[in-house]
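re: ur msg from earlier - yeah i can do the nicotinamide-adenine-dinucleotide complex, just paste it... oh wait u already did. ok heres what im feeding in:
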Amino acid sequence: MTIVARPSVGASLLGGSIVLPPNPCLHPPARPVRPWTGEPGTAGRVAVVGAGKMGLPLAVQFARHGWDVTAVDIDAAVVAAVNAGRSLVEEEPGLADGVAEVHHAGRLRATSDAAAAARGADVAVLIVPVMLDDAEQPDRRAMDAAVAALGPGVHAGLTVIFETTLPVGDTRNRYAPRLEAAGGLRVEDDLFVAFSPERLYSGAVFRNLATYPKLVGGVGPRSTERAARFYDSVLDAEIVAMSGSEAAEFSKLADTTYRDVNIALANEFARYADRVGVDVQEVIAAANSQPYSHIHQPGIGVGGHCIPVYPHLMLSGAPDLELVALSRRVNDGQVGLAIKALEVALGGLEGVPVLVIGLTYREGVKELAYSRALPLIDRLRFHGAVVSAYDPLLDPQETSRCCAAAYRWGEPGPFRAIVAQTADPRFRELDFELFPDLAVLYDGRDSLREVALPERVTYLGVGVQAGTRRRAPLPVGATAGA
Ligand SMILES: NC(=O)c1ccc[n+]([C@@H]2O[C@H](COP(=O)([O-])OP(=O)(O)OC[C@H]3O[C@@H](n4cnc5c(N)ncnc54)[C@H](O)[C@@H]3O)[C@@H](O)[C@H]2O)c1
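and the outut:
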């Protein structure tokens, strides 16, 4: 609950644990005021535009700190659910209860009328998606539409905060002028505009909200201060007032691109491990015991609408950043390497029944955006494989719509290969007796190394070979070996 110029926790993360303890909530009950002008200890009215996986938890967080919250969404089902005190996002721990609680307390409602919500608000937080188009350029249609829809409600005293990841410069150059024009106002005089990246991890959102420092950068000092004061009133984490919106935008792209580049390096290490015949996981664990080494995990590719997307937001303004572009290609190339490994192990894929397990981009998150399962299945089919698919978060209709013929868990199947694309713990319970023709298990996320396989099944991992796979950690004092 302190506003600082630099986060104080950084150094402890080097090579160490990333599980930070949540800060206790030390906010006394807030005093409702109208209008809200940033005075400590007060709460006003906030519109959260985009009530999805990130927006809805934010709405709950703000309401719990005394703010009067209106969620704005173009999806009528989302609006109806929120107004009935329900969340359509099912997997986020604590969200359903949170929505019910703050709705019951009369501090959360929803509408599709963005202008009306902005008119009645002191603060508007925008958290609608910005993705990529087919040319891998930023697709800002949702954000452009959201800003246009807010327009008629823009009024003097309003603070508009962008939380959606944006290319550097968008807050100042693209959106602030539109908001000024819509309201006939001037930023820093009577309108405040800032960027504050959403850095939460699906599945741990409320914990992250109490932990991660909140970065805030305005288009000018008054905007920075107003936005920082807003977050200081609703978050129990440190608020980092940055030098401007560009630095805040860049910070988000830097953190996510760093992870993409790091994973690309881990994937290259996995390729090298295959060549020299060692288990890359053993190497990474050993290397990371040096506190300055923080090698990430190799795998079958990087999915989701964050890590594979944001490097492109950076490249859109700087296509000459070679390492960033190369890392994207390396990570996207992992699917091709998996298919090549299967082809070699099976002597070709033409007519071969293959089961892909784990279709969402990550286990536990019902989101298919940029999931590597999609190109994996496409390429398997291209090489002639007959693909079936399974994901514990998708029902059979959803599975056949998005991906491939639905396999029903627990049924026998003719598969010669099974490819795990997520690390869902349920996959460790696979009963291999159901698959008498199975010849290969491809472990795309290093989550199945412990399973006991019948003799006839070859284990293939990313940088882990059949002969070097370790079933369990070595006992202390043991020598190296499979
Ligand atoms: N999901 C994550 O893990 C994650 C993590 C960190 C940051 N983010 C950021 O959050 C953004 C949103 O992600 P999300 O996972 O919440 O998306 P989401 O798809 O779950 O939700 C987005 C919501 O916005 C609504 N929407 C779309 N256009 C709109 C418009 N013009 N006006 C009002 N509502 C509109 C949609 O109907 C949907 O309910 C991402 O683009 C990213 O920048 C996401």
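cool cool. Residues 245-276 form the longest helix (32 residues). ping me if u need the other ligands too
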